[in-house]
Write a structure and sequence with these properties.
The protein is α+β, with helices and mostly antiparallel strands. The protein has a single domain, classed as Nucleoside Triphosphate Pyrophosphohydrolase (Alpha-Beta Complex), CATH 3.90.79.10. A hairpin with a 6-residue loop joins strand 2 and strand 3. 25% of the residues lie in helices and 35% in strands. Helix 2 runs antiparallel to helix 3. The chain is globular, with a radius of gyration of 15 Å.
Length: 150
């Protein structure tokens, strides 16, 4: 039996210094674009969750860039179609936001069971493409937060 997912996750906005943002298209929902996301496993730190999810979903080693905890979290209701993955009665998730700044756009190797495509867009266009409000809002914060990273 697969253990229940923890209602703690990460959102990792992968971007360049020029504020180009990497988006991934969900395999199960064509047209749904997002940044890297994923749930914490076992007792790993949220930073370790971010590193693992980036590698699993994109093939990018976060050590090749600057991974920063934005010290921002969002609480949202879990879509009903995904609640079966969580313990009975769990309806909300807490998402911790990170940024990963890269010097250049590396080759992206998506996990085919999770994502069907990837693309790089300027931050404004990336924000508009996201289906998730929390992902959109994080990307819209990028000019302010990204400027602090340079």
């Amino acid at each position: 039996m697969i253990p229940a997912k923890q209602p703690l996750s990460v959102l990792v906005v992968i971007h360049t210094a020029a504020l180009d943002v990497l988006l991934l298209e969900r395999a199960a929902h064509p047209g749904f674009w997002q940044s890297v996301t994923g749930s914490r496993e076992d007792g790993e730190s949220m930073q370790d969750t971010a590193r693992r999810e980036v590698l699993e979903e994109t093939g990018i080693d976060s050590a090749s860039g600057k991974l920063v905890d934005w010290r921002l979290s969002n609480t949202y209701e879990i879509f009903s179609e995904w609640r079966h993955r969580y313990a009975a009665g769990v309806t909300h998730n807490i998402e911790h936001v990170f940024g990963l700044q890269l010097a250049q756009r590396p080759e992206v190797v998506t996990a085919p069971d999770e994502h069907r495509d990837s693309l790089w867009l300027p931050w404004q266009a990336a924000a508009q493409r996201c289906f998730s409000w929390s992902n959109r809002d994080a990307i819209l914060m990028l000019p302010k937060i990204g400027g602090l990273l340079l």
